[in-house]
Amino acid sequence: MRLLFRLLTLAAVLAMSLADVAPAWALTSRIKDIASLQAGRDNQLIGYGLIVGLQGTGDGFRSSPFTEQSMRAMLQNLGISTQGGQSSAKNTAAVMVTANLPPFASPGSRIDVTVSSLGDATSLRGGTLVMTSLSGADGQIYAVAQGAVIVSGFQAQGQAATVTEGVTTAGRVPGGAIIERELPSRFKDAVNLVLQLRNPDFSTAIRIADIVNGYASARFGGPVAEAKDSQEVVIQKPRQADLTRLMADVENLIVETDTPAKVVINERTGTIVIGSDVRVSPVAVSYGTLTVQVTETPQIIQPEPFSRGRTAVQPQTDIAAEQTGGRVAIIDGPDLRTLVAGLNNIGVKPDGIIAILQGIKSAGALQAELVLQ
User: Fold this and answer.
1) How confident is the model over 5-53, as pLDDT tens digits?
2) How far is the C-alpha of 250 from the C-alpha of 204, rounded, in Å?
3) CA 104 to chain centre
4) CB-based burial, 239-262: b 16+ in 10 Å, e otherwise
5) For residue 363, what are the contacts with CB-CB under 8 A and spacing of at least 6?
6) What is the CA radius of gyration of the chain?
7) Residue 38 belongs to a domain
8) Residue 10 within any structural domain of the chain
9) Cα separation of 272 and 351, whole Å?
10) Which residues contact 260 (CB under 8 A, 6 or more apart)?
11) Residue-number span of the structural domain to which 223 is assigned
12) What is the pTM of this model?
C-alpha cells in the first residue's frame, strides 16, 4: 500500500511539472480550421456578358464598339434583324462575369457571380445580366449566369457637382449562376486524403501526422498519415474505412499549432501586428522628431497722404523649429507584453514605432521576421 501511495504521489508531481513546462500560450485548433483538402479546392470560372436595362449609364457605342457588336450578335441569335442605323441609347454595358465553383458542386445548385464593367459605363445599378456561359480553365462550360445585378455604390450628378459613394461599375448577382456540369473527379474515387496547411509549418505538419496516426492506430490498428513537407500531410485510406467518414473524423481532431515569429508592418495605414513569439534582445533606443513651421504673413504698405508713392506688399516670413522626443529607453522583450510596454513607454506614434522596429531589425536585435506591406 505504501509503495502504491508513493507511485501515485510521484505521478502527480511529474504531471504538475510537465504542466509547468508546457507553454501557456500554446493554442489548439481543429484540423479543418488550419488545413484544407486538396481535392476540395475551388475552381475559377469566367465569362463575357451583357447587362441591359441601365438608365443611361451604360457604354457608349463609339468608345466601346465591342458592346454594340455583342448586342447585335445576341439579337441575331434570337432571330431579330439588326439592319439599320446605329443606336445611341446607353442602356447596355459589356461586363466580365467571374465566379468560384465550389468543390463537389452538383448540377442544379446555384452560386454567386461578380460582374465588372469593360467599357465606359458609369453605373451598373438597376441592370440585368443576360444569360452568360461561364467556362473553366479547360474551356468547358460549367455554369450559366443570369439575373438582376446588385450594386452597393451609388452616384448622383448635377450640373456643377458629382457625388460618388463606393464602386458603381461592379456588382454581384446572388445565386445568379446555375451549375450545369460537375467536375470530372469524384471524392470517393481517391485512394488517399491530402491535407494542405493554410500556414505552412513543419512543426504543425508533424503534429497533424502524429495526431492522425494516434487516432488511426486506435481505430484501424496502424498509422496512415505522413507529413510530406511543411504544407502537405498525406493520409492513406484504410481498406475497411469509408473515405467520407474518415475525413469527417480527421477534420475534427485537435492539434497544437505553431507559427514562426513575425512582425507585420503596413506603412500606408500605420498598422503593426506583432506575433506572440517575437523576442527582442536588450537594446537602447532614442527617438526624436524635428518640426519646422514656416509662416508667411505679408504686410501691405500704404504711401503717405498726398504723396506720389504706390501701394506695395512687403513679405514677412516667420520660421519656428521645434524638436521633440530624444529620450533614450532600453527595450528588452522576453515576451509580447514586455515588448509592447517598452515601445509604449517611449511615447511615439505608430509611424515612429515602425521606424524603431526597422532600426532594431537592422541592429540584429529583433528575433523575428519583419514583413513590410
Assistant:
1) 343 333 443 333 333 434 444 578 899 999 988 877 888 999 999 999 9
2) 15
3) 24
4) eebebeebbeebbeeebebbeeee
5) 283
6) 33
7) no
8) no
9) 9
10) 201, 275, 277, 368, 369
11) 195-257
12) 0.66
Residue 188 lies in a domain: no
- Dihedrals phi, psi of 309, to nearest 5 degrees: -75, 170
Q: Which grid cell sits at 184?
A: 470530372
Dump pLDDT digits (tens) for 222-273. Answer: 899 999 999 999 999 888 888 889 999 999 999 998 888 888 888 788 788 8
Residue range 128-184, pLDDT digits in tens:
999 999 999 889 999 999 999 999 877 777 777 777 778 889 999 999 999 998 887
Give me 221's grid cell: 490498428
Q: Which amino acid is at 185?
A: S
> How many of the other CB atoms lie within 10 Å of CB of 334?
11
Whole-angstrom distance, CA of residue 261 vs CA of residue 308: 78
Q: Count up the domains in the chain and report the number.
A: 3
Report the length, in residues, of the chain: 373
C-alpha cell at position 289: 522628431
At 265, list the grid cell: 508592418
Residue type, 77: N
Grid cell at residue 229: 513537407
Q: Burial of 159 by CB count in 10 Å (0-12 exposed, 13-18 middle, 19+ buried)?
A: exposed
What's the 3-state SS for the chain?
CHHHHHHHHHHHHHHHHHHHHCCCCCEEEEHHHHEEEHHHCCEEEEEEEEEECCCCCCCCCCCCHHHHHHHHHHHHHCCCCCCCCCCCCCCEEEEEEEEEECCCCCCCCEEEEEEEECCCCCCCCCCEEEEEEEECCCCCEEEEEEEECECCCEEEECCCCEEEECCCCEEEEEEEEEECCCCCCCHHHCCEEEEEECCCCHHHHHHHHHHHHHHHHHHHCCCCEEECCCCEEEEECCCCCCHHHHHHHHCCCEEEECCCCEEEEECCCCEEEECCCCEEEEEEEEEEEEEEEEEECCEEECCCCCCCCCCEEECCEEEEEEEEEEEEEEEEECCHHHHHHHHHHCCCCHHHHHHHHHHHHHCCCEECEEEEC
Cα(356)–Cα(263) distance, integer angstroms:
12
| Predicted local confidence at residue 254, as pLDDT | 93
Which of residues 147, 179, 211 is at a domain's end? 179
Among 179, 210, 244, the domain boundary falls at 179
